[in-house]
Amino acid sequence: MAATARRKVRRRIRLAVTGTVVFTALTVTTVGASATTPMGASVAGPTLLGAGSTPSLMPSVRPAAGPRSPMPGFLLDRGRYTAFDPPETGVNLLPAGVNNRGQITGEYLGPGKESGFLRDRHGKITKIDLAGATATEVVKINDRGVIAGAYSRTVPFLSDPNAKAHGFLLDRGKVTRIDVPGAVQTEASGINDRRQVVGVYIDAGDNPHGFLWGKGRFTTIDVPGATYTEPIDINDRGQIVGIYGEDPGGASIHGFLWDKGRYTTIDLPGVPITIPYGINDHGQIVGSTLTDAATLSGARGFLLRNGVGGRVTPIRFPGAPRTLAVGINDRGQIVGAYENPNTAPSP
């Protein structure tokens, strides 16, 4: 029961973003296949469509009138916001991370289909699907271009919170599957340049736990007293940020920083939900606060420039009713998504 509730919490934001647009048919096609790389043992894993040949690069559209999608992505660099859209209509992008090379990763949400995407520093977008997967979630990317995420072979995550998930790493077209031993589900979410990976797994008793994986070894990450713990990102110093909660329903969600085995709660004042999404090597943290994860109500981005306990800098796209801040690199570039004030909200 707790695991089911936690999975609903994790995907409420995706559902809310997906619900902001009336989907049309996807027209993007991907071809080719790559080899798979096992992790520790020979396993049958998925392959990246498009990696066996030259990937199909779709330039990000920038209409003269501005972004057209209900929830565009953005890059914040030295005080300047640059918005970007998916290269087709009827689709939403949900950025998740940015590395020091300016590469942005995230989710490409279409009608009945979840894919990942990679946006290069020139604005070109590559759609990522793993062969045989009904859903591909692309989350963080490190400076070497290695991507962490999760996939399902059964049903899309958005249509069923109990969809069986496997974690993966994608490195130059090759896929490494990540499954915590004995777990019924594993999702990878963050990766650093030391190839340490964080994420969440569900044990045989349907209990959710966070994990840290490095050099073939898994370590469980559980905030004491929490019903669920979900690490989201890790920097090169081994500092981890994520969320936890005592309420299985997810009405109240707390952020946390894990540093050398010590947990510090991150709760911004006046809101029930604080989600730290990203941490860079300087210890700067970005995230979002909400009053309701199911509707993105009250979504506001924030930056903790001096880490936990430091001054809170609001991140709000100019004129946008709602803003999500989700990733930060060592150059201080921040990525996120915002509600487009120039498009009509969905019913």
UniProtKB/TrEMBL annotation:
- What keywords were assigned to this record? Signal
Q: What residue range is the signal peptide?
A: 1-33
Q: What is this protein called?
A: HAF family extracellular repeat protein
